[in-house]
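Here is one chain, start to finish.
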Amino acid sequence: MANEHPFYLAGQWHRSTEALPVTNPWDGSFVSSTWLASELQVEEAIAAAVAAAGTMRSLPAYERAAILAKASSVLGRRRTEIGRALAGEAGKPIRDALTEVDRAAMTFQVASEEARRIGGDVIPLDLAPHGKGRVGIVRRFPIGPVAAISPFNFPLNLSAHKLAPAVAAGNPIVLKPATKTPLSALFLASALEEAGLPKGALSVLPMSRQLGDRLVTDERFKLLTFTGSSAVGWAMKARAGKKKVILELGGNAGVIVDESADVDWAAKRVATGGFAYAGQSCISVQRVFVHEGVYDDFAANLIARVESLVVGDPLDGATDVGPMIDTGEVDRIESWVKEAVADGARVLTGGTRVGRSAYAPTVLDGVPEVAKVCAQEVFAPVVALYRFSNFEDAVAAVNRSRYGLQAGVFTTSLPHTLIAFDHIEAGGVVINDVATWRIDHMPYGGVKDSGVGREGPRYTIEEMTEPKLLVINTEMG
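Its structure:
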């Protein structure tokens, strides 16, 4: 891996006077370095995006599609290189890092396909006498310069979910990647450059939080897309002014294991959905509501699976669970678990620190609903189990949360499936799998504190375009 990665400013690779070293969360070892953009460089990127808006707007669909398809191909060709960089900077197990590269390539490929079918409508206007002889045509136009801020946990694919739809829609974009994991987004910039994206249409700039606030408040941007914590996201929306906002925020995903569920399958999937990438996903399984008739079998099955997970170096192919993003996060979850135990929770497995920066996969029982590990977004390898006897009560328990991103329900009951779909307050309900399941073309987003708007290339393109109506009067006599 290269010892340094310049950042991408309006079609050129640049440095600044402030270096940004990138280290591996597992052992603190040096991975690579880039730079934090200066205030002048951020202004240059914004001005370039504004200047490129006309070029991007006039770029025909087939050219946008071709750029995205080639970028997807570049990601596939560089899969191993990008995967190792991602594992290093994020502490993500290498198997999961390589999967993320594959997902990002798919995101670009799907966006390429969607660029070719951004459609519109022909609508009748003769619903009243004064509409006789008139026809309406609705077409979608690029919204204009986009500001994007991406998180540390899926730094490649969640950045792809901002860049690819922006290009597909015909918008220039300025992206601020997370300062802990900036390398992945720079690989995306390299792929788009190689694919022939017009200069000025893209800037990927690591920057300070203070400068990042420029992306939120600057009126030259027509849309802000942010993925991160709920508190930060809603505060950004309040400062964003007139621009449109897409927020993909936090969660504390609930899963229901019904009496009719396949207990072995449910335990297997919860062991994956609760502990992949050390639980650092906004749809990581956090609260599991298990019918009292299968609770003991489920808990024993889950604990056996969790205790078989390998915690270790993310670059080791045998590792299932790597480190948390920094030692402060381990300190936080240690204190949250201790607080829950002091209030009556029991540790069924785990509950200990592993090395300098990892936390053992942990299963809790009897957690008070007001405890932080239940009421807040845990963002750590911790799952809490609860018993229920009535399915409707389990649905109500899932809904006793300020979040509503996704939920999972294990059941063979069609009535319970329909009750869950009708009444669970979330952006998505997954039957017979965990809330953590996602495929990248589906509409993805939440309700309540979990955000506003949807990701998935087709749905983000809709957010990143504006409908315009043309009315034609065919009777002028």
